[in-house]
Amino acid sequence: MSRDNPRIAVLGFAIECNRFAPVTTAQDFEHDADIRGNRIVSEARSGKSITLPDLPGFFTEMDRTGAWTPVPLRVALAQPGGPVEENFFKAYLAEIEASLASVLPVDAIFVSCHGAALAEGTDDPDGDLFELLRRVAGPDVPIVSVFDLHANVSRRMTDNLDVFVGYLENPHVDIYERGVEAAKHMRELLAGTRTAVEMVKIPLVPPQIALLTARGPYADLVKYGQTKVGGDILNVSVMAGFAYSDSPKNGLTAVVTARNANRKAAADLALDIAKRGWVAKERFKRAMMSLADATQLAASVGRDRRRKAIVLADVADNPGGGGRGNTTYLLRALKAARAQGVILGVFNDGALAAKAHELGEGAIFTASFNSEEHQEFSLPFDCEAKVVKLSDGKFVGRRGVLKNVSADMGPSALLDLGGIQVVVITIRCQCMDPRQFEIFDLDIAQARVVVVKSRGHFRGGFDEFFKPEQIYEVDCPGLTSPVLANFTWTKLPRPVYPLDEETTWSPPELG
Is residue 306 assigned to a domain? Predict the structure, then answer.
């Protein structure tokens, strides 16, 4: 081992799990990214990686700041979905254990993570992974990881880490920067800095639409935390958690990493942030627009070009939270209202996309939405349509979360339903980058109404077209409905606010 050329093991496991969604399979990981060895290094340095952007950020900063030797193990990530199938996760852990043991000694470990995973047989697969890494690597090898700010945090995660780095932005436009930050912390650890990581959780599980970081109660907590970074405080991460995991780990969590192993400073600040979050709990409530009102508004905007164009966010069917991306509530209502100037995307229906490719551009046919998938909310809908344009669905994102990320929607088609143009895809993903429309030659600036299957990441990609006041979140049924009372919870700690209005919390005594 050498401080002049440290050997750093690199791995990743990233998925946001919705307990109410279908099980996530090995094929789901293969569709997104499941890579090993030197492929990890080449992707991280490619400039258009298929990985999460924190990995390229980490590599870029490590390359900039001196010699180092990456020791790539395995990076597996998948679109948000249900709990990971047990055999896949067990095999992943076994491979990481064996491969890490085979390359020891290493000077440090970097993990590109998410933090809201579930797997069949375990409610804390992230904790399982970090516990394994610590056991195999030993107590003195620095471990640094980056997490989505929707991570559900456990002490098994924080107790086995030297630095916990959470995203700061929602939409997550800072993932690359957090990878850069992680590399800076890694260099400091390699130079001898020792740390302490502490966490405090409160019984607050806000709806996901209340967690933007441009403004609002969550923004205030995140920004307050950043004012405390410096001196012994190395990193402050305010993790809102992911409600639909229905996990014993749910609850907004303040995580603080302190230099000089100053555990008291970390614990005191984490408690301070948690108290502030609890005092502000009522501010996390947020109303949506009804389906009827949204339909009426869309029809009116389509008729009157003097009005500003709008976005209707189908937040309850967000593939980025485990939704199937194929509910038809908004589509049917807009068609019935004869709305015009509408583009809708991206609608996940491989069978319909395949039919469009079979018929070819220019074909007119009866489009049968959800002819093969029959989930609870995936209701069928038939409508006459024209195949306007076909695509292989591959693109490189240009803004927001997907900037410089290579993505693949699978065989895709643009269908014209008469005033409503729908982008139909094969590989489930959320709508968050303009390229998902632009590869079909759609001019977003000319649309009157844009309907997105997304909770919030579209804001980072479409902000060049729409200001916040032009965006309306619509209350429809779905696997990611912000109305938490719509779900039957089995493992969510209760009582929890705002689901249980009577919830109380007493700050813990820190010893």
Answer: yes
